[in-house]
Amino acid sequence: MFKKDVMSISDLINVYLRKEGLETPLLQKRLIDAWGVVAGHVVEQYTAEKFIKNQTLFVKILNPALRHDLSMMRAQLVKRLNQEVKCQVIVDVRIY
């Protein structure tokens, strides 16, 4: 009487998002929102805009010294941002 292919609601939502092509945009949004957590509150105050294009996160930083410091930490930022969303969303960060 019971069906063997019973799925949890979480799994059903993930299947639906993947089927409708919404999984990647959702993960990208989560990663952009995680910038303040990973980079810190002070860095977020100097951040003007953020967007993802071709698996690269572009971040505009208003302070030149901070921009240089963050450019030197690109690999660490990529790793920490992907860890925050628990998925490989980006492969590079461009600080401009």
Topology:
Blueprint: H1 9-20, H2 23-33, H3 35-39, H4 41-45, E1 47-53, E2 56-61, H5 64-72, H6 74-85, E3 92-95
Parallel strand pairs: 2-3
Antiparallel strand pairs: 1-2
Describe this structure in words.
- The protein is α+β, with helices and mostly antiparallel strands and 96 residues long.
- It has one domain.
- It has 6 helices and 3 strands.
- Strands 1-2-3 form a 3-stranded mixed sheet.
- A hairpin with a 2-residue loop joins strand 1 and strand 2 (56-61).
- The longest helix has 12 residues, at 9-20.
- It is elongated.
- It starts with 8 loop residues before the first helix and ends with a strand.
Oligomerization state: single chain
Q: Estimate the mean pLDDT confidence.
A: 94
Q: Largest beta sheet, briefly?
A: 3 strands, mixed
Which runs of at least 5 residues are low in confidence (pLDDT < 50)?
Answer: none
SSE arrangement, N to C: HHHHEEHHE
The count of strands amounts to: 3
Computed over alpha carbons, the radius of gyration is 17 Å
Number of helices: 6
Q: Return the domain count.
A: 1
Query: SS-based structural class?
Result: alpha+beta
**Separation, N- and C-terminal Cα atoms:** 60 Å
Major sheet: order of its strands? 1-2-3
The percent range for helix content is 55-70%
Strand proportion, as a percent range, falls in: 15-25%
Inertia-based shape:
elongated
